[in-house]
Amino acid sequence: MTLFAFHAVVVVLGILSMGFQLLASRLLNPHFGSSIVVWAWLISTFLAAFSAGSIIGGSISNLPASARRKAAGIGALVAVATLAVVAVFGRTLLSLIETTFADVSVAIAVSCVGIFFLPVTALSTFGPQCVQYLASRGTPPGKASGVVYGVSTLGNIAGVMLTAFVLIPNLRVSTLLQLWLAVAVISLAILLRLLRAAPAE
User: How many other CB atoms are there within 10 angstroms of residue 72's CB atom?
Assistant: First the structure.
C-alpha cells in the first residue's frame, strides 16, 4: 500500500508539472497571445525549472536524514506558496508586467521566469528525492531512477491530455489554478510523510 501511494503521488506530481504549463499558457494568452515567442519562453522556463529543480533535489537527497527532511519541507512550502501566488495574483502580476515593460518580448520573459519558474523548480526538487526514497528501501539506484522518471513521465502525458481535452474546455483557468494548488497541498503532504518514513541512513 505504501509503494502504491508513493507511485500515485509521483504520477500526480507529473500531472501537476506539465498540466501547469498549459494553464500558464492560458494565463498568458489574454496579455500576450499564444505566439511562438510566448511558447518559446514558456517551454524554456519550464525546462530550466526542471533542470534547476533536479540539481537542487539531487543535493537535498545527499544531505543527512534530518537535514534532508527539513529541506524537503521547505521545498514543499515554496511550491505551495508560489502556486498560491499564481492562483491568487497571477492575472494582477501579468497586468502589471504588461504595463511596465514596453518591449513585449521582455514582458513575456519576465512573466514566464518571474511567475512560473519558482513553483516548477520547487516541484521538480522532489524527483531525485523520490529516487532516493526507493533506493533507501532496497531498489538499485539505476532501477529507482528509471521507475521514478518513467512513472513521472506517464503523469506528464496524463497531465497534458487531461488538462487540454477535459479541464480547460470545461473549467475557468482561475478555478483550475485553485484546483492545482489544492492537489499540490494534498500530494506534497502525503509525499513528505512518505519521505519522513524512509529508513534513516
Answer: 22
Domains of the chain, earliest start first: 2-196 (1.20.1250)
C-alpha cell at 53: 529543480
Q: How many CA atoms lie within 13 A of 112 on its CB side?
A: 25
For 35-125, where are the alpha helices, taking DSSP H only?
36-61, 65-100, 104-111, 117-124
Beta carbons within 8 Å of 106's beta carbon, 6+ residues apart: none
60-108 per-position pLDDT tens digit: 999 999 999 999 999 999 999 999 999 999 999 999 999 999 999 999 9
- Alpha helices per DSSP H over 101-140: 104-111, 117-124, 126-136
- Residues 66, 69, 75, 81: is their CA dihedral positive or negative? negative
Distance, in Å, from the CA atom of 167 to the CA atom of 44, rounded to the nearest integer, reads: 24
Measured CA to CA in angstroms, residue 80 lies from 38, 68, 119, 121, 177 at distances of 25, 18, 7, 12, 12
Beta-carbon-side half-sphere exposure of residue 143 (alpha carbons within 13 Å):
7
- The residue written with cell numbers 521582455 in the block is 106
Cell, residue 171: 473549467
Global confidence as pTM: 0.95
